[in-house]
Each structure stands twice: as structure tokens, then as C-alpha cells.
Predict the 3D structure of the following.
Amino acid sequence: MAHIKILSKMTKKTFTLSLRLILFFSLINGFSLRAQTNNSAPYCQGQFSISPCNQPGLSNFPTNTINNFIDNVLTAGASSNIVNVNSGCNGLTNNYIHYCTPFLVGSLGQVITMSVQSGQLFPQSFGIFVDWNQNNNFELPAEQIDGTLNTVPTNSFFVTTFTVPPTQPIGLYRLRIRCYATTNAYPDPCANAIVGETEDYSFYVNNSGPPVLSAFLSYNPPLCSGQNLNLTINHNGSGATTFNWSGPGGFSSFVQNPTLSNIIPSVVGTYTVNINDGPCSIVKTIAINLTPTPTITVNSATVCAGNQATLVASGANTYTWNTGQTTPTVFITPVSTSTFMVSGETNSCIASNIATINVSPTFTMNITSSNSLVCTGTSITLNVFGATSYTWNTGANSNSIVLTPSATTTYSASGQTGPCSSQASFVQYVEDCSGLATNSVAESFFTVYPNPFANELTIVAPNNCRFRLVSSLGQLIIDKTVQNNEKIDTSVLQPGIYFVSLGNDSGNKAIKIIKN
């Protein structure tokens, strides 16, 4: 039977030295608190009807109406000791907690001293158990290490020792400590109670114990809108380590390194993973930040063939065009309608957009006159062709204008079709026709009409007159004998000024005529 000591406030001074030695050796051989869980499966878990075990304030809060818990657990003499000080109320469901660390490591036949302390406000009774047969219960008498029939005074230690059975198989066992607020019987490891706390620890026999489970979470920053979020865990657990992820938007996953596709702002936040490696588990969190993807805007353009287009991109810090240029504004002279892509980057997030340059073909214009050579004061009509809109040097904007020039004049027009423009000009010749009949030229013995003429001249003269037609440059064009009222075909003649010479034995006469 293990030796039991109950130290009240009156005997604390005599226990101070031994307690300090326990703390010293425990801190040398022990491990600091690393992780905790309320997962008791598959072990029994007695429920406490009052929870949490500290109400309404923090552990050992002076005004608490309920304050019943195990405040300190210390061991000494083991290969690796438990040092869990000032743990207070665990605050978990049914006032139950399973500490992954610190854990206890004992050798066969080793004598281990255990010290458990009640809180500062209320006395407690204690029971200590080890599941030696590993059946997830503590029903054997040998599994009941020690306990109290009466309460341990407030802020006092209950100290006991036990020996690791010399024939105990090497392995992992469950150590349980239970406290009741009041009792008149040995605390039960699994029964329900009103007020108290249950703490479980891992107990390795003739074993160095597991490595301290640790993990590091990471993701792939910078994370841009629309990209995949890759969550990664690096850990030192075994191949049997399990993972339970949770996160914004109801996210959950049981794979080690989950991937979320097409990230949007609503799924950005803190992700949590419970990492379990057999008896131990840890909880890790990672905050995911979303870097906004830039919105790239770029203009399109329409230019005339051979002209330069200006494209301007905006919305990012840096730019790259598929032409190789890296400025936000580029100048391009395409030979045909083409598309160009620009990529913009801000804080390592990249987006792109497409610009189109439409190329319009060039064109030519022509101006025609109703009469290329007219007499002063005669009206003519000029027509321009080839564009969709026009502007004459007279100020007119139609494709047809009526003019009455007083002298030979050059008329011009500019035309526009889309982005392309062109120009054309025309010389309107005007002759001073004063002294000439408007319809005919008559001399004493012949008449030539009409004047100005177009495609035909009529000669009224005596028979067998010699008819000669000479250009204004002196070139002889027609030389023939004509009869009275003979018609001369002039359709092949160019518009201009001509001279007619008619003669017979009686004499010659020359006159000036105009071809329209």
C-alpha cells in the first residue's frame, strides 16, 4: 500500500524543502506544458454537473462561487517527470482534459512520487489511477494508485508514491487524476459527480516517450484573387498522423496539405488544423491574407494604314506587352488589324487585358467638272468622289458644288473615311469670251456654231471651203474641204481653246472657238 501524506496549511513550512527538491528535479527531467485536449476516447469520462470548474471568474478568483480543480501536478523520481503547475480550471467540457505533454516516463521497479495540489479557494479530495491492463478503464484494485477519503485543505498538496511493476510490459499507459469538491468516499475514476476536475496524462513505461509533436503551417503568398490556396503542414509526427482542418466559409478537410481553388475574398481568414499523432495532438492556426489582383484597363484604337496608334494601359504598377515593351504607353504601327496583350503586376499579382488596333485602308479622291473650260460668268458643277465626308476650300461640305468662276481657279477638297483622310484638287479653266457670240461665230461668208461647242461643229459656208482646226498650241488637228451646212465630229477633242480657219478663192478668215 502506497504511503499517503495530506499536508494542510499548518504543515506547509515543514514540506517546503521537499517540495522545492521535487520541483527542482522535476524541472530538470520534465517537459513544459505544450498541448491539451478534451478528447477522452476511448477512455471513460465521468461528468460533472457543474461546469466550468471556476465560476464566474478566472481560476482562484476571490469572488468565484465555484472553484474546484487540480492546480498543480508534479512527479519526482521518474525517468521523465510531469511538471504542470498553476494549471487552474481547464474550462473544457465536463471539466475534463487530456494533456499530451507533459508526459511521465518510468522504468520497471522505479519508485515515483506524485504531488497534486488543490486550488486556493476550496478544499478537494483526490484519486490517482493507472490503466495497467490497457483496457480503457481503471477497474482493477492495482490500478487505483492512491486517493483520499477526506478533502485536502485549500491550497495544499496531496503526496503519494507508487512503484512501477517490475514485470510491466513496455508501452503507453493512461494516468488519471481526479478531484472532487467534497467526498466521504474514495474518488471514482469514471463516476459522475457534482463539482471537480479530471486530468489524464500519458505514461510511458521503460520507454523514452514520443518526440514532442510540432508542426509549422505555411501557404503560397502572395495569394491573388482567383488563384489556388495551397495549405502546407511540415511536422515531425509519424506516418499515422491525422489532420482535421476547418476554416472560413465552412471549409473542412482531412488531408495534410489541402488546396482550395479560385480563392475569393469570402474564404480568406484564419484556418485551423488539429494535428493528431496517436496519444498527442496539437492545434495550429494560420491567417491567410489575400492580395488584390489588379484590374487592367487598356484602350483600343482605329488608325489609317501606315499611321501610328497609341495604346495606354492602367491599373497596375508595372506592365509587359507581348511586343516586349514595358511602359504603360506604347506606340505601334500595325500593317493590318491586330490584337495586343498587356500584363500588369501589382504586389506580385498579375492580370492581363487585350487591345485591338483596327487598320483602315487608305483611299484616293477625284474631282470632276461639268465643263473643264468655260467662259467668264458661266456656271459649272464640281463633284468629288472617294470619301464619306468632304470639306472644300470654299467652305462647302457637300460632295457637289456649283460655282461661277471669273478666272481660271484651282479648287481643292479634303475627304475623310474613318481615320483616313485624303485630298484632291482640280483646275477650272475660264476664258474671256467677250466679242464672241455665245452660240455661233459669223463672218461675211461663213458661220460656225455652236460656240462653245461639245461633240459637234456645224459649218455654214460656200461649198468647197477649206476647213482647218488648230489647237491653242498651233497643232493642226483637222484640214479638209467642207460643204455648206457640214457637221464636223469633235467628240475626240479635249476641252480647250481652238482656232478655226475657213477660206476659198475669195480669202481666208480665222476665228477662236472653245470646246467644253
Helices lie at 12-29. Residues 12-29 form the longest helix (18 residues).
